[in-house]
Backbone:
C-alpha cells in the first residue's frame, strides 16, 4: 500500500452537518465526505484490491467506491483528518492476511486425565446408592 498515492487519490467534499447546533448549522459546512474509487486506484496491486474488495464488500458501492463521512467536530479540518485516518486504518486492516490455523491433536495426558476423572466421578455416584442385601 502506497500511502502517498492513496492520499492523492482521495476526493473530499464539505457538506452541512445535520443535527443540533443552532443557526451555525445553516451557515457552516463542517461535515466531510470522502470518496475513494478502488477501480482507478494505483496505490494497490491487483491482489490487494481483490483482498480489500472481499473483506469490505458491504462498505463499497456497486461501482467499487468507498464513501466515508465525519461530522464529529465543529472544525472542517479536524473532520477531514479524522475521516482520512479512519479510511487508512480501514484499508490497513483489510490488507492483513490471517495466519493459517495448524490443526493440533489432543495430548495423551489430557485424554487420560479426562477418563480418570470420569471413573472417579462414577465411583462417587455408585457409593451414594443403597447397598443390595
Residues:
Amino acid at each position: 500500500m502506497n500511502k502517498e498515492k492513496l492520499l492523492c487519490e482521495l476526493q473530499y467534499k464539505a457538506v452541512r452537518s445535520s443535527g443540533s447546533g443552532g443557526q451555525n448549522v445553516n451557515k457552516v459546512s463542517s461535515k466531510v465526505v470522502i470518496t475513494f474509487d478502488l477501480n482507478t486506484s494505483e496505490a494497490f496491486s491487483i491482489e490487494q484490491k481483490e483482498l480489500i474488495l472481499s473483506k469490505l464488500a458491504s462498505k463499497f458501492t456497486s461501482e467499487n467506491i468507498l464513501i466515508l463521512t465525519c461530522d464529529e467536530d465543529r472544525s472542517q479540518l479536524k473532520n477531514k483528518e479524522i475521516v482520512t485516518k479512519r479510511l487508512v486504518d480501514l484499508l490497513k486492516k483489510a490488507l492483513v492476511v490471517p495466519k493459517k490455523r495448524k490443526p493440533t491433536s489432543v495430548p495423551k495426558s489430557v485424554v487420560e486425565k479426562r477418563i480418570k476423572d470420569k471413573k472417579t466421578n462414577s465411583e462417587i455416584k455408585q457409593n451414594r446408592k443403597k447397598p443390595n442385601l
Remarks:
- The beta strands are 11-15, 31-37, 65-70.
